[in-house]
Amino acid sequence: MATKLLKAALFAQAGAACNCFGNGVCTNNECQCDTGWKGPDCATLDVLPAAKASSGFASRPNWGAAQLREGSIYYTFVGAKRNTSAGASDAFASNAGLHLLRSTSPTGPFEDLGEEIGLNGQSFGFRVDAKINPVDGALLLLTEGYAHGDGFGFIFRRSASGSALGPWTEHLVYELGMRVIDGAEDWTADAAMVDADRWDCRLADPTFVVLDTGEVLVGYRGTRCCCNAIIGAWSSTGEHEPETPGLLRAASWTGPYVRTEQPIFDADVEDMFMWTSARGVHMLMHSQDNAHFNHERRGAYAFSADAGVSWNFSAREAWPTHLALDDCSSTKLAKRQRPSLAFDDAGRPAYLLTGVATTTHGLEWGDGWTAWQPLRGAIPASDAPCAEDECAVSDVGTAGACEACGALDHCTHVTSAPARDRCICAAPCDDERLGAACEVNADALSETCPHDGWKLLPGTSNGGLFRCGSVVDGAATGWYGHCIDAAARCNGVRNCGDGSFDGQDELACPFVAACDWPAVARGDGVCLECVPEDVPNCLDAAPTLDGAACECMRCATPWLGPACDVSLAAAPTTAPTRTTPAPTARTALSDGSTGVAPAGAAAFVVVVLVMNVF
Asked: In sequence order, which residues have a C-beta less than 8 Å from that of residue 571 and are 6 or more positions away?
């Protein structure tokens, strides 16, 4: 049955051009992914549980890193909280800098060599990207801040020796800072900007690559200058200001840099990280798409085969939204952003580095730290109990082992939460109960929304929550600061409000909720995550893009494809002819196709609604 569902879900894609997003080869019209990647189109990182004993750097609050190897020593630049004394500001904007770490292993333990200070005695911003220039072997470090003798903006620090220890020179390569709208100085606004409504009036969070020709691409997050109150945040009616990816180009790292003027693809993303391979230019990023109710933890991926002229953006999630550990435990995260990669000696991705936190404030350090998560096949095998895979669906990790979920009162079908940290009910609760574990009475009144609840438009539900209130003529009305369990919607009880309000949870009934991602409907109201048994010959399964069925992300040898029904042992077929579409302003192929299908192939279009919150 599962295979039939998968075949139906993929029928419209049958015959589509084989596109492996620069991370695999097309074999018998299916993608055979490189080490460290998985999925039908190789656009998802194949991460392993992180080592419990060395999962990252957390000695001081920090958020993202760039790591390089010099001989037997690893040097890591981290964006970190400068002053950690009692009473010091917890804001990114006023208490940030770059720290240099040293270690003999990619994952530590780390020796903190202290803050990197500029030639004028200044601190730098906490965004960092560092790479060796293939033209001259110098180490280039890109960040935001002041360059000695030049001014403020995107700056390159250059170590001619190629060493992270310097000595360094500083070079302003794109000037930022001007007066906008109310006359106040905006230090992230483009100094050449004349339109405060321009999609990238503000430029931030730079990343870069140096091509073999010496040409440099600098990616950045663009936002308008018009909308301070809603940039990176939800308003009470769901209004938000998108974060849009842009690109600067120059013939060499010294510039001059020229804006491409149009977004490189139409997606709401930030914190991009770029790198190159023999196949092209790759990009990881934090996605603000909230369709799966996980935008603060969601990753995305894109690829360009023509040096950044045109891009394919994948609609798939690039990494898990929780942090699994090799002792079978896991950490449920509030935020997972600011990605980068650490590479092995052959230049292949070996570790995913991300800023992670269980605290929720989008502009403060909180308990943020940078996690190192290994990629499958990229590091030596470990004998830890969950080194190769996290606990299976319906199990939870505890005390170095996976244990099956037991019975829950008022629940007919028990499973585990996606983070494998607790047991939940996979079916509607009986006896008029509510809650993920059927722990709430059906007549419970709404309470102030938790953090995730504020990302819902009033009168809608997702992620197990219903947000009370509604939107009338663009204004939030009713008890819109309150939320209830999503199962309370249309349950015959007015759970919203203070008892005097009509209760929007009982309007527009009956209402049948979809399964919360990544669960898939199994009938009779049961929602379960995909398991390998759903697809024959599969080792790792996940929902299809529309969430209607299961497909395979990693097949057993020698099988390939989302249904694991194409054999490597079969005679190779001729790969379909592919062309690269001309770049179009604010346009992206979000189903991962090149836009070219063989004759007779059915058309298949995915429309991605991308939402933005910080």
From this structure: none
Tokens representing 156 are: 């390159």
CA gap 404, 176 in Å, rounded: 55
- Say if CB 552 and CB 2 are below 8 A apart: no
Q: Where are the beta strands (DSSP E) in 314-469?
A: 322-324, 330-332, 335-343, 349-357, 369-374, 395-398, 401-404, 414-416, 423-425, 433-434, 440-441, 447-448, 461-462, 465-467
Lowest mean pLDDT segment, chosen from 185-194, 406-415, 439-448, 531-540? 185-194
One-letter amino acid at 48 equals L
In the sheet that holds 169-180, the strands lie side by side as 129-132, 139-147, 151-159, 169-180, 184-190, 202-210, 216-223, 244-250, 258-259
46 φ, ψ to 5°? -95, 80
CA dihedral (13, 19, 21, 26) positive or negative: positive
Q: What is the pLDDT of residues 25-72, one digit of tens each?
A: 999 999 999 999 999 999 999 999 999 999 999 999 999 999 999 999
Rounded distance, CA 488 to CA 499, Å?
15
Please state the separation of Cα 167 from the chain's center in Å: 34
Between CA 294 and CA 298, with CA 297 as vertex, the angle to 5 degrees is: 75
Which structure tokens are listed for 373?
């998560």
pLDDT 10s digits, 315-363: 999 999 999 999 999 999 999 999 999 999 999 999 999 999 999 998 9
What's 364's DSSP letter? Answer: B
Cβ neighbours around 570 below 10 Å, total: 11
Question: Cβ contacts of residue 572 below 8 Å, gap of 6+?
Answer: 27, 28
Please indicate whether residue 121 or residue 500 has the higher confidence score (pLDDT): 121
Element (H, E) at 8: helix 2-10
What's the Rg (C-alpha) of the chain?
Answer: 25
Answer whether 322's CB lies under 8 Å from 50's CB: no
Residue 586 has pLDDT above 50, yes or no: no
Asked if residue 512 lies in contact with residue 498, where contact means CB atoms within 8 angstroms, the answer is no
Q: Which of 606, 594, 596 is CA-nearest to residue 304?
A: 594
Token pair, residue 493, equals 């009880």
Burial annotation 45-62 (CB, 10 A radius, 16+ → b, else e): bbbbbbbeebbbbebbbb
- The angle at the Cα of 129, spanning 313 to 100, to the nearest 5 degrees, equals 145
- From the list 302, 297, 277, 278, the residue with the least C-alpha distance to 287 is 297
Residue for token digits 């603060």? 296
DSSP string for residues in 223-270: E-SS-GGGBTS--TTS--B--EEEEEEESSTT---EE-SS-SSS--EE
Spatial separation of the C-alpha atoms in residues 515 and 548, rounded to whole Å: 10
For 405-430, the pLDDT digits (tens) are: 999 999 999 999 999 999 999 999 99
| Long-range contacts (CB closer than 8 Å, 24 or more residues apart) made by 150-155 | 151/175, 151/177, 152/176, 152/177, 152/187, 153/177, 153/191, 154/203, 154/206, 154/218, 154/220, 154/248, 155/124
3-state secondary structure of 441: strand
Q: Among all chains, which residue has been given the structure tokens 């502009």?
A: 363
Q: Is the peptide bond between 40 and the residue preceding it cis, with omega within 30 degrees of 0?
A: no
3-class SS string, 462-494: ECCEEECCEEECCEEECCCCEEEEHHHCCCCCC
pTM here? 0.89
